[in-house]
Design goal:
Layout (H helix, E strand, L loop, with lengths): L22 H18 L8 H14 L3 H7 L4 H16 L5 H10 L4 E10 L12 E2 L4 E10 L5 E4 L3 E2 L4 H7 L2 H8 L2 E3 L17 E2 L12 H13 L2 H10 L11 H19 L2
Parallel strand pairs: 1-6, 6-7
Antiparallel strand pairs: 1-3, 2-3, 3-4, 3-5
């Protein structure tokens, strides 16, 4: 009688991946969780603060599926989702406000900050409500975020989410960035997408951009050199966005606008913790 047996037996297989975060980041998240549990008076939970921190960081860093993380830790997917939202709220509360971030740069002796915007792609949904998230510039659905970095490219502030069809200059005016810059006594380097943002340029503009060429007027050699200098100085802002987008959960966001804002501000705190370790 012929029997059919598995070729390799019935042993379980375990897949391991490297969590590319520092011990300082894990301790930061675990400390926040521990403080939150003490505040709520929680007597017992399924996982320790350290285990919850590792699970949440794996979801944020590698965009691990909730069901996969749940199955490996003997909890439900809804529990992992609750853990993630809890940690995001705790981290986002530590993100600096715009006025405080600029005043901190001014106290350090800084003179300028770097301003830019980025589109975080989102999952395409059906219905008219999602049409406003389509960016004609990037030919994709997403949410627009503005960010400020210092001269070294370290993120210091990130805005709330805007629909993908919104322009960067409109989002900057909504957040009153020029007013906050004047109050802090700082200037900002920006790309050509922010030309015309400064509402009172005068002799002391706070938004410094290059010059645009038109059909009737070409740029002079001096203006081209100025554009190159501005681009070279503001290249550090791209390093700040690269540090932020190294968290793979931003590959394609599947959250609503409110949670997406919380997510970006939480990742700002984590990215700065990793850079400044």
């Amino acid at each position: 009688m012929k029997t059919h047996r598995p070729v390799g037996g019935t042993r379980d297989a375990v897949c391991q991946v490297r969590l590319a975060v520092s011990k300082r980041t894990v301790e930061l998240v675990a400390g926040l969780i521990r403080g939150r549990r003490k505040q709520l008076g929680t007597r017992w939970r399924k996982a320790t603060p350290g285990t919850q921190a590792i699970v949440v960081l794996a979801v944020l860093r590698h965009d691990q599926r909730l069901a996969d993380m749940a199955g490996g830790n003997d909890v439900s997917a809804s529990t992992v989702r609750r853990w993630v939202l809890e940690v995001l709220g705790l981290l986002a509360a530590r993100a600096p406000r715009l006025d405080r971030a600029l005043k901190k740069i001014a106290r350090r002796g800084g003179a300028v900050v770097l301003l830019d915007g980025t589109l975080v792609r989102t999952r395409r949904r059906t219905g008219a409500d999602n049409r406003k998230n389509y960016s004609g510039k990037h030919k994709a659905h997403g949410l627009l975020f503005l960010a400020l970095t210092d001269e070294n490219g370290n993120l210091i502030w990130i805005s709330s989410a805007r629909p993908g069809r919104a322009s960067e200059i409109t989002a900057a005016r909504h957040d009153h960035i020029t007013r906050h810059l004047r109050e802090a006594g700082l200037g900002a380097l920006a790309d050509l997408g922010f030309v015309g943002l400064d509402d009172a340029p005068g002799n002391a503009p706070v938004i410094i951009t290059g010059r645009k060429a038109t059909r009737s007027r070409r740029l002079t050699d001096a203006e081209k050199e100025t554009n190159r200098l501005v681009s070279r100085e503001r290249a550090a802002v791209e390093h700040g966005f690269a540090n932020l987008k190294s968290w793979r959960i931003l590959t394609k966001v599947r959250m609503n606008v409110h949670h997406a804002t919380t997510l970006l501000r939480a990742l700002l705190v984590l990215a700065n913790c990793e850079v400044q370790r």
